[in-house]
Design goal:
Layout (H helix, E strand, L loop, with lengths): L2 E5 L11 E3 L5 H10 L6 H10 L3 E4 L2 E4 L16 H13 L4 E7 L6 H8 L3 E10 L2 E9 L7 E2 L11 H9 L3 E5 L12 H11 L5 E3 L2 E6 L6 E3 L5 H14 L3 E3 L12 H7 L7
Parallel strand pairs: 8-9, 12-13
Antiparallel strand pairs: 1-2, 1-5, 3-4, 5-7, 6-7, 9-11, 10-11
Helix pairs in contact: 3-7, 5-6
């Protein structure tokens, strides 16, 4: 990956030095896993296959892959995944003055989180759009915003499924009632993330109404300090850290090691943009 996190001058954020985001990542695993996911709604993998020289035919909902004698060798740069960048975007929307995340994948099916935040009045711009390795990549500029509530429909869930934990916290900081429906899949992720985020909010003396497939939450809530039970879920742990910095309160996850599952440089990136964890 080649995300650079660069600070634009702002209040209470330090260092103008760009930071190279280089998660530990197996390119071979990425290629194999991508090829296995054809036809499951992952346009990045289909784009990759074209890039490698595969012959793919679409017919309504049917996808066929013709046999080939070989796949073309390639040199490619893998852009930053927005499901990781979402935590920095959230911090920028809630706390920062100006934050620029460089070279983020902006594939249409990966922009659901940004679209929801824009609907919530978030100040987000996508700049310098270009195509790299057959994928659209851009820079995401974020600044502190007065957020308002929204309704997230079932048809949107597949495009934001990994970002719902952090989105739940953001909703607690948005004016009005946010409603989310159709997220049954969250019951069977690394943890039961709906139940986990209910406990997250309520454990900090917040209020949330949970349903089998979603929730309703009112904002703006003044959440208390406290310990967050992550159930060893990396996204819940990172959400707790963002809440800690955004609210300036000692909100701490009971497990931070699990963050390495998806984002091993999370704390380095937080530090690089001036984030200070309250301990």
């Amino acid at each position: 990956m080649f995300l650079k996190i660069k600070k634009i001058p702002r209040v209470n954020w330090s260092s103008n030095k760009p930071y190279n985001f280089k998660p530990k990542f197996s390119t071979f695993f990425f290629l194999c896993f991508g090829l296995m996911l054809f036809g499951l709604g992952y346009p990045s993998n289909i784009n990759l296959s074209f890039f490698l020289g595969s012959n793919i035919t679409f017919f309504i909902s049917l996808l066929t892959i013709s046999s080939v004698t070989k796949l073309n060798p390639l040199n490619m740069k893998v852009p930053s995944d927005i499901s990781s960048a979402a935590f920095l975007i959230s911090l920028g929307v809630l706390k920062g003055e100006n934050l620029l995340l460089k070279n983020v994948l902006i594939n249409e099916r990966r922009l659901g989180f940004v679209k929801v935040l824009k609907r919530m009045n978030a100040s987000i711009e996508i700049l310098n759009i270009k195509e790299i390795s057959n994928e659209l990549v851009g820079d995401i500029k974020v600044s502190k915003s007065d957020l308002v509530a929204t309704t997230i429909e079932p048809k949107e869930i597949s495009d934001i499924i990994d970002e719902i934990p952090i989105l739940t916290f953001i909703a607690s900081q948005a004016e009005g009632k946010t409603i989310l429906k159709g997220a049954n899949e969250l019951r069977i992720k690394e943890s039961d993330r709906l139940e986990n985020m209910k406990n997250f909010i309520q454990g900090l003396n917040g209020e949330i109404t949970m349903y089998e497939d979603g929730f309703e939450i009112n904002g703006v809530q003044d959440l208390d300090e406290g310990s967050v039970s992550t159930e060893d879920d990396h996204r819940v742990a990172m959400t707790a850290i963002i809440a800690n910095i955004a609210l300036g309160k000692k909100i701490l996850p009971d497990n931070t090691d699990c963050i390495k599952d998806s984002y091993p440089t999370f704390f380095l990136d937080i530090e690089s943009i001036g984030g200070v964890i309250n301990e």
